[in-house]
Structure to design on (248 residues):
């Protein structure tokens, strides 16, 4: 009889231990599952980002957004903060909705070596310094089409005329250069001394390269932003001081 009672007590004790162990295991599994499902922030392309776009340009134009994903779904190398994009450039075109991977954003020292600029045949990449106002308040971005308008002396008087129309923008530099670093060329005419210049890189036909460079050195260049599929017309008549108050 006594042995039977001991057997029952032992069985109950073992059952309690097993139940406690199961409870501990279930709680531990729940914690692991909850830890894996904990949301974390990552960066995603809100809009298509052309190759060679700087991280600063992508952020300033709201092409990047923060989204959350479960921790156990994190992709290795995914960018999780805006600061990680600063000073980097898109190595290739990035499609809308793509998670941003650090391996696809290279440093400034790698831009030239990786041929990130998509230069069309019979063209050359030419960078000019343009202040914020003269690049349509900063709305000129890689992939846009622009026209170049220059004001410079001609036959003893200043004239304003088109240099080129329908020019593709290859890149917009992330670093603004102060006027004091530009030397004593015509670029001093680009604005007030407090203005800063940003490098805008354009695809220029071979035959017009020297023309654009001379206009940038000796005159003041404005960029006009063209709408998609714009049909540009003739260059028009040059305008001088005496033409402003005349009729159309």
């Amino acid at each position: 009889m006594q042995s039977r009672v001991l057997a029952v007590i032992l069985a109950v004790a073992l059952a309690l231990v097993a139940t406690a162990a199961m409870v501990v295991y279930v709680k531990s599994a729940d914690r692991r599952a909850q830890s894996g499902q904990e949301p974390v922030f990552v960066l995603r392309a809100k809009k298509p980002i052309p190759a060679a776009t700087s991280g600063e340009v992508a952020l300033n134009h709201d092409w990047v957004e923060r989204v959350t994903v479960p921790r156990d779904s994190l992709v290795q190398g995914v960018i999780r903060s805006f600061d990680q994009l600063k000073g980097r450039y898109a190595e290739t075109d990035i499609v809308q909705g793509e998670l941003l991977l650090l391996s696809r954003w290279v440093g400034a020292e790698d831009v030239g070596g990786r041929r990130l600029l998509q230069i069309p045949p019979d063209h050359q990449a030419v960078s000019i310094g343009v202040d914020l106002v003269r690049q349509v308040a900063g709305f000129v971005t890689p992939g846009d089409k622009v026209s170049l308008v220059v004001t410079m002396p001609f036959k003893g008087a200043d004239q304003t005329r088109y240099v080129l129309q329908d020019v593709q923008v290859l890149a917009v530099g992330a670093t603004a250069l102060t006027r004091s670093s530009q030397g004593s060329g015509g670029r001093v005419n680009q604005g007030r001394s407090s203005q800063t210049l940003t490098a805008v890189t354009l695809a220029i036909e071979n035959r017009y390269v020297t023309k654009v460079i001379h206009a940038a050195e000796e005159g003041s260049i404005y960029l006009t932003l063209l709408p998609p599929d714009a049909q540009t017309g003739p260059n028009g008549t040059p305008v001088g001081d005496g033409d402003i108050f005349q009729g159309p």
